[in-house]
Amino acid sequence: MDHTALIKSLPAETRATLMERSDGLGLRHLALYLCALLLCTAGIATRIPLWPVLLLPQGILLVFLFTLSHECTHKTPFRSGWLNEAVGHLVALLIALPFVWFRYFHLAHHKWTNDPARDPELAGKPRPDSRASLLIYLSGWFYWKGMAGTLVNNAFGRIDAPYLPARQHGAMRLEARVLLALYALAALSLLASPVLFWIWLLPLLIGQPVLRLYLLAEHGLCPLVANMLENSRTTFTNRIVRFLAWNMPYHAEHHALPNVPFHKLPAFHDWTRAHLKSTSDGYIEFTSDYARSLAR
Question: Bridge partners of 295?
């Protein structure tokens, strides 16, 4: 059974229940996440004993805000539309991922998942095919280079990707200009105090390899087919990773029915489990499999 047949097989009441969104559950998850982030931030800023140890968890918490931004593009973390928009734009500032632009980039990825010719996640930057290219990928170099180019191009109105609707070009241009202005102010602040370097910039760099490995598992080593239960991977992992990633390790489920909010994905997994084609028992297993697949 492919994903379209699976969705058609769901009872109408079950499908409606699976797509119910909740401000309360979304805000509770966000509050817990922000508490962890603020505790690490406070420990680094005040330089508690052994504070450098906090740089890695701080970095992981910062970079995994990507998964919250991703959820907000689907308008699923919260029931209220304004909450999804506000949180999405706030996260954009922290991880240099322009929210309006990313929404359409990501929707195109869903439409053409794992299609080498049309999936924008693959366009011009295929997945690592050697150990050297894997190391470059893990560094986050392609992400930072890509986002810098996107922000500059959008700010100057050079917006030409076919999946970016013309009606949103003005919003993307304004968004990029605001972000670049705020980053310029942040850079100037470093002349007065290095605090942003220690609580934000350095942790972002340190945390990138963890996020890159996580993201590689979503579609890496999956066949180039249309079935979302086959071209996307569900990774069985622990509660901490599922919490950080807003349950996105259930990635085949997410691609099969993107309107299912994060807190309903475990329930949806009960329906998809027997039909999943690409799975891994944890990220260590996936990473080992991927490394073995690479040319030396």
Answer: 130
> 141 Cβ partners below 8 Å, 6+ apart?
none
The label of the residue with tokens 């670049």 reads: 180
d(CA 133, CA 177): 32
> Exposed/middle/buried for 21, CB within 10 Å: 0-12, 13-18, 19+?
buried
Q: What is the CA radius of gyration of the chain?
A: 19
Interval 47-91: pLDDT, tens: 999 999 999 999 999 999 999 999 999 999 999 999 999 999 999
CA distances to 40, 49, 79, 117, 258 from 277, rounded to whole Å, are: 38, 47, 31, 23, 18
d(CA 75, CA 50): 39
Give the separation between CA 69 and CA 95, rounded to whole angstroms.
9
Compute the half-sphere exposure of residue 7: CA atoms within 13 Å on the CB side of its CA.
17
Integer Cα distance of 24 and 243 in angstroms: 16
Q: Which of 152, 161, 160, 149 is nearest to 181 (CA)?
A: 152
Reported as a pLDDT band with limits 50, 70 and 90, residue 159 is very high
For the chain, how far is it from start to end, CA to CA, in angstroms?
37
Contact at 8 Å (CB) between 264 and 20?
yes
**Signed CA dihedral, 88, 94, 100, 101: sign only:** negative
* 204 close to 95: Cβ distance less than 8 angstroms: yes
Polymer length of the chain: 296
